[in-house]
Amino acid sequence: MAGNSFGTLFRVTTWGESHGQGLGAVIDGCPPKIALSEADIQQMLDRRKPGSAKTGTARKEADQAKILSGVFEGQTTGAPIAVMIENKNVDSSAYQPYADLYRPGHGDYTYDAKYGIRDWRGGGRASARETAARVAAGAVAAALLKRENIHVTAYTRALGGIVCNGFDSAAIEQNMFCAPDMAAARKMEERVDAVKQAGDSLGGIVEVLAQGLPVGLGEPVFDKLDAELARALMSIGAVKGVEIGEGFAAAGMTGSAHNDPLAPEGFASNNAGGILAGISTGQDLVARAAIKPIPSIAIEQQTVDRSRHARSISVKGRHDVSAIPRVNVVCEAMACLVIADQLLRQKAIC
Amino acid sequence: MAGNSFGTLFRVTTWGESHGQGLGAVIDGCPPKIALSEADIQQMLDRRKPGSAKTGTARKEADQAKILSGVFEGQTTGAPIAVMIENKNVDSSAYQPYADLYRPGHGDYTYDAKYGIRDWRGGGRASARETAARVAAGAVAAALLKRENIHVTAYTRALGGIVCNGFDSAAIEQNMFCAPDMAAARKMEERVDAVKQAGDSLGGIVEVLAQGLPVGLGEPVFDKLDAELARALMSIGAVKGVEIGEGFAAAGMTGSAHNDPLAPEGFASNNAGGILAGISTGQDLVARAAIKPIPSIAIEQQTVDRSRHARSISVKGRHDVSAIPRVNVVCEAMACLVIADQLLRQKAIC
Amino acid sequence: MAGNSFGTLFRVTTWGESHGQGLGAVIDGCPPKIALSEADIQQMLDRRKPGSAKTGTARKEADQAKILSGVFEGQTTGAPIAVMIENKNVDSSAYQPYADLYRPGHGDYTYDAKYGIRDWRGGGRASARETAARVAAGAVAAALLKRENIHVTAYTRALGGIVCNGFDSAAIEQNMFCAPDMAAARKMEERVDAVKQAGDSLGGIVEVLAQGLPVGLGEPVFDKLDAELARALMSIGAVKGVEIGEGFAAAGMTGSAHNDPLAPEGFASNNAGGILAGISTGQDLVARAAIKPIPSIAIEQQTVDRSRHARSISVKGRHDVSAIPRVNVVCEAMACLVIADQLLRQKAIC
Amino acid sequence: MAGNSFGTLFRVTTWGESHGQGLGAVIDGCPPKIALSEADIQQMLDRRKPGSAKTGTARKEADQAKILSGVFEGQTTGAPIAVMIENKNVDSSAYQPYADLYRPGHGDYTYDAKYGIRDWRGGGRASARETAARVAAGAVAAALLKRENIHVTAYTRALGGIVCNGFDSAAIEQNMFCAPDMAAARKMEERVDAVKQAGDSLGGIVEVLAQGLPVGLGEPVFDKLDAELARALMSIGAVKGVEIGEGFAAAGMTGSAHNDPLAPEGFASNNAGGILAGISTGQDLVARAAIKPIPSIAIEQQTVDRSRHARSISVKGRHDVSAIPRVNVVCEAMACLVIADQLLRQKAIC
Q1: Which terminus of chain D is less hemmed in, N or C, by CB atoms within 10 Å?
Q2: CB contact under 8 A, A348 and C350
Q3: Residue B307, number of CB atoms within 10 A of its CB
Q4: Do B344 and D349 touch (CB under 8 A)?
Q5: Mean pLDDT by 10 residues, chain B (350 residues)
Q6: C281, D110 in Cβ contact below 8 A?
Q7: Interchain CB contact of D20 with B (< 8 Å)
Q8: What domains are there in chain A, each with its CATH number?
Q9: First vs last C-alpha separation in chain D
């Protein structure tokens, strides 16, 4: 159990390297008789595809998900569901210079120190490509959640310092940054153009919204719904912070301002982000993840090689300017996995 | 496994309610021959004691930790270490009004909905008192880390909107808020006085600093060191956000500003907070937790009772104005648990 | 996680040494609103008490179970249930000779080799006294099973080579060996008397019978109901073999003799012992455990001390002639834990 | 976590159905820098191949193991190792009659009851073919054990009631039943011929021998080395009993006969089978598994269909007469997994 599994009952194990045979996920614990097709998975996987936004690369990865087990006549059987995405047209030559050179902001140095061996091709296991397997697994979770009328979505809250105002759900699909604010999206475009020109990269904030949750999901004390979400989102390579509801802003509020009053018809506000004492309130669940800027940049940086000699590096090639919006669906997938797991855990005791 | 255990190899299980027989922790997986005494645990537990700061209550809880197993002649034996803290002088009568009334910002409503039964005495299992068991367990982890020359500490980064500038380690023990900035501490005192007067409460930010970590701790993909820390900190009832290194600020930075360059003598900066690709870099590990304001306030709020009738509530009695600084040692304890666990996991494979 | 926890959803963690402060169990994952009292636990624990049978010692252990958490107004709350049994009147002086001397058939040598430190008082963690915590936990599981109309019992199938014929359930409580065959019980008495006289000890076979199981419990592939039972029973120190249904006899049968035919009214036989492909059939579940003879005997044996010098040893004091029938309720408790866990796991998916 | 994973640190997750796309195993937690090739896995997998013994079918399954991840330049990297075995030339038509008919002794009835849906093609997930993934995973464990000079082997102790005398290791590869006794092997051949002629099947006993184990492996209390072995072996579909050392025979022995005396040069005997108090003694580890007769037989049996109507059934087609000796390598693989896991767990604490 070296960290490649996630979940207690709805449990996912992923495998694969960026330039190996492929990537995969095994989902163990999915209830039987859930409708599931390769198209369900493909649809979610396609949202991770590069090239749809200015922040992404021009490269065309034709990731195709294939279900290898656990589905019979269009339904899950209760057996483990193995999904595989083959790596195609892999050319590792562009990574050859980094076989002995540590890219700043990447895991090259720490992987080498930890394991004493490193598959440097395309970043190996530490590549962001690893998240494709998460999305495939998240799509299976989403199929389960669909049966329970739970719907999870993720969109861009901020990019390169430009923060969205309000929430215009229609806007999300109308701009290339998946931002719920068209005015902000236009500014993001300018910002991205400028930074790309400079050979630099950008971070941002992704917001995850889950609707339709019943009250009662989440296991106190250590496996609180928010604790599991925090782990889930922070486990994505690019994420450096996670907050629920008002989050860090709550640190500056008073109790009278932050507490959500209850009324016979329900809660009067949702500063808590849909979670109280680690358990869902039945309101909208709101979480945000801080995404660091892509570490691969053309601008020259100082680094060292495996022998600890000083070197300079300029990471060339087709690299995204920001993980946003491709990472959005990864956040969404992780949230689906958490909720599906907690749903089954709640069913076990009630 | 209903969420009361934490860790993979260094694994803690806690139990106990605020007004039951007591609270306890069972630590399974602690290596043998670690020096450990009740005084080691007591010392850490005393830092959670109320009354030491203006934010705390005047109440005197004389929490005494007792080691029930797993230690022989001053050393751990490899057997599970059970620690118990007896509840003394418990009087639940002050909580009788809340037996059927949901306190806003507390888990009363969600616990009732989840379990259909609720031990309302002192908040039951959802009480912040639960964290005493975490601190006891964290003290055992700290004893292990001490052998490895790893040192973890937590202090106040912000309180009631007042943010500390810089880091004056000497200051931490010189002000009642455990703030590393004496000037900020003085402003905090004024803020706390005013809010206490108003019958309201405050939140803040705790910073955790771990020093002496070797490079290589953390298990990709899902059990990254930062992911485990995020879960650990977010599992504390009062925490609404967690960030590592530059955290949410990273979302607004460019790659060239955020990346930490490497030099022959080590990293040139530490924006990453000591973690790259989920694995410790050997630098200082820096994490922050956003603490929400204490939900129990004297100011009148709207709520409902179990029958969903509208009611108003004013939570009287001795309540802290802020979880800070009592929660600091809880954050520290959780970080110790995470690091101890990852240390053993790394030993297993290398 | 050093092996002191058991179960996936209905999860027990035990702690304690023979001559320490006491023994305990924390049960995490018990559903809420199960009726549970200390008397329920005490009743099962009393069956482990010595002195009730000729095989047992004359010693009087007054084991008293105390519930420390997780129960409110006579019902479980969903919070972890901590149970403690205090060690009373402990005198370790009789064990002083074995502080540096390895008793054959005991874990003295292996514990020393594994941990480099050993709590030799009363056998420490390796004492059979450890099983008291299992019985306490099993009683909680039994309370859950009772709600589901599942009933588990254990009795003696063989002792000292004398095997019971048939199954006379009334006989079990009418003889001191808990044998379902009065004639066999009489022969066992003679055998025990003779062996006790010789300063030797005896083994035997315990049979566990679970009735009322629904069809469908058990998780293929690795967590089959029989696999979990095998682990559960084999984890009892005295057990050297486990079999289900016809067990080892099945190895000598043909398929036509072993297969249980199905008829519209149900299975026509039960050679499988109530489990097919790791899943309960809804028939009686039958498992047997082989119990080795008590290793502490008065007869002189050859051994070594910690310095590997040859020594001879004669273990004096009040020792049972056989673990049977005291171990029966331990087997029963372990079976209860397995079934309770599988029951919750099945509820989670169906 | 529906039972398709095994192990705590060296953790295997398997997937796949008999007539689906294939079978696979993901091994998470294998230390880095272990030499591993597809040939290592293939060699072990080939021993599971049918047709090598009279008990097996004439069918030719060309199972080819393919490593999909976790190995780089001939060595493990610490990343999860995915192994896949494609299903080739699958024709499910022979199983069509059993889509609605429950084969006695198989999991058809229990799977249907548990999940409400069943992939009947080739037995689906409940097929013995599932064990191919175990063997692939076991081969990875064996590669790790090789580095530690631990060697595990499995052979036939009994078949169809004919029990081997003594242990002639050379004989194992000289007879088609992998029996360490040539005389017994000859009798087995006669027995198999007769039973095959009658359209019936046979069971037997497999013995697993592990040599080179260090003293100290095994985690008390619940994860004892023997408990884990019992679970591991009993989780194989055909196994109905497991014993360690003298096993069930120990139940009839006295303490003076069963205890293994210690001498300065080591233990004087090995009745315990290499395990004391759940921890390896450093001696040979000896375990046995009782294998039930193959349930698929040509002889007509009574059964029911999904609508509970009485039916008769005669399972035609190429079926093995006995799981022995094909199941031997499966037992060996499971033992390798258990030992590898306990080895890493011991490294973590010592």
Answers
A1: C
A2: no
A3: 8
A4: yes
A5: 94 97 98 98 93 60 90 98 94 89 97 96 94 98 98 98 97 97 98 96 98 97 98 98 98 98 97 98 98 97 96 86 97 98 95
A6: yes
A7: no
A8: 5-349 (3.60.150.10)
A9: 29
